[in-house]
Known about the structure:
By secondary structure, chain A is of the alpha+beta class. Chain A is built from 1 helix and 5 strands.
Amino acid sequence: xxxxxxxxxxxxxxxxxxxxxxxxxxxxxxxxxxxxxxxxxxxxxxxxxxxxxxxxxxxxxxxxxxxxxxxxxxxxxxxxxxxxxxxxxxxxxxxxxxxxxx
Amino acid sequence: xxxxxxxxxxxxxxxxxxxxxxxxxxxxxxxxxxxxxxxxxxxxxxxxxxxxxxxxxxxxxxxxxxxxxxxxxxxxxxxxxxxxxxxxxxxxxxxxxxxxxxxxxxxxxxxxxxxxxxxxxxxxxxxxxxxxxxxxxxxxxxxxxxxxxxxxxxxxxxxxxxxxxxxxxxxxxxxxxxxxxxxxxxxxxxxxxxxxxxxxxxxxxxxxxxxxxxxxxxxxxxxxxxxxxxxxxxxxxxxxxxxxxxxxxxxxxxxxxxxxxxxxxxxxxxxxxxxxxxxxxxxxxxxxxxxxxxxxxxxxxxxxxxxxxxxxxxxxxxxxxxxxxxxxxxxxxxxxxxxxxxxxxxxxxxxxxxxxxxxxxxxxxxxxxxx
Lengths: 102, 371
């Protein structure tokens, strides 16, 4: 399968996951947010686990603690591998967790 | 979940809380500002302030991107949303922020095609699947969010997408902090630094605060234990006569920031000469615009926006709340005319806004507030 095909697949699966997760998101635009998070900037940073990778396009499919999934930019934290936990803000992974020594 | 549960441990929390109580000087009042709206939200969600001694007062800073957007920019966004053949996209809370003549949500009800997205990447996806329409993303946020917008613009360019535009309202955190520190209204004893902004810019740029203004700063995480630990580090510094930048959030914040993120921001953005902040007025070099290299994707160049400066409603005291001068409940319209359902001011809109945090978590125990 071409890279483009792979990407589409990733995006499709992500789109489906997004819909699946929608029950946990605000039901009406601008309504109260059951997550208790700020939906303005897609919350503070959320730790998410990488469950799918498209390294060519620097995109990953990431899963939140509660199972909701979304597509995430990983250029800023590359290289990453499946199973890594990253801090995600507004669809972009900002840090690989455990990267910085305490 | 790893990295989360251990920072919500109640037993450890009471240990740190007792340590704060043992460290503070009972004869002194501590006024500590949490810069970031995410911190404000966590503090009230977990009741962190109730675990602090009564002479440690937390005041809220200007770090909620929705709260600092002035009315005129909302009007500009609505004007863009009404352009022909345009799909206007923005984050959810932004839709409820009142402009001078209604919000984006009301503009949507009037027929404008306005859609809520969770990331700039979602907006790009809409552009990709609607090649015959022009898609505008209303970009807001501090340095935490700016790299997302930058990466999405670079991605759009790389994919040859020509119907994706950005109305850039990204702001930077340091200039308003300097403005606050210069302001005679407020005497602060310490800052809880914005952890997620620091994952991008690092803790280093904040060094001027202890150096030039003699106020210590601790970069903090967002879990309740992170916040307690940061307060402890601040009161320790004050007790020992130290004044420096400390990094409590070292599990995520590298002292020098994320160079890759700084690079993409430098490529896509340039500093605006000045930008208006709600309640704080015009602050020079405090916001970002698209650079010349991305000018063709700048919605404000592609279309004309009114660009009119609109004064905030008289009843609204968001400005004082954003500067930490008054507490949300001290505002005349808090909880009466201004509620999260029908906000007058921005601080009541976003859950990171101080007023909304007070409202949602029942912060009505006013006797607890020591001013």
